[in-house]
Specification:
The structure is a single chain. The protein has helices at residues 12-17, 19-47, 50-81, 87-107, 109-129. By secondary structure, it is an all-alpha fold. The radius of gyration is 20 Å and the shape is elongated.
């Protein structure tokens, strides 16, 4: 008994019937997931839980954003070039991209934070140099 990429917890027939709905709902999950995390982060910021935002919510936001950007190209390729790809296989490709981005962000979180801080410092220095005297 091996793993088959055409099964998805018993819902494969419903998913394969509505391939266009899979595309819409897949991207909607990414976008509304990011929106929900932003709202949760705003509530946690008001409460004062900045550690939770810094170590859990911000990496998840970054992961979902990178997944959204990187899932566009394979989706276009799968739907245009290889039109025989089922909705289940498309979902598995998105899950793979999401997990890859999650591991990337978790392993490189300190480097990403350092890069963002340095970029902020550089933009502040540019603003200071270009101010009117």
């Amino acid at each position: 008994m091996g793993f088959n990429f055409n099964t998805f917890f018993g819902y494969e027939t419903e998913i394969n019937k509505a391939t266009d709905s899979v595309l819409v709902y897949g991207f909607a999950v990414l976008i509304f997931g990011m929106l929900g995390l932003v709202l949760i982060a705003a509530v946690f910021r008001k409460i004062g839980f900045t550690a939770i935002i810094s170590y859990f919510i911000s990496p998840l936001l970054l992961c979902l954003g990178l997944t959204l950007l990187l899932a566009i190209l394979p989706t276009i390729v799968f739907c245009v070039v290889a039109s025989d790809i089922s909705g289940v296989q498309l979902i598995y490709s998105w899950i793979t991209i999401f997990l890859g981005m999650l591991f990337f962000v978790m392993f490189n979180l300190s480097t990403i934070k350092k890069f963002v801080r340095e970029f902020g410092k550089m933009s502040e220095q540019q603003e200071f140099r270009n101010r009117n005297r």
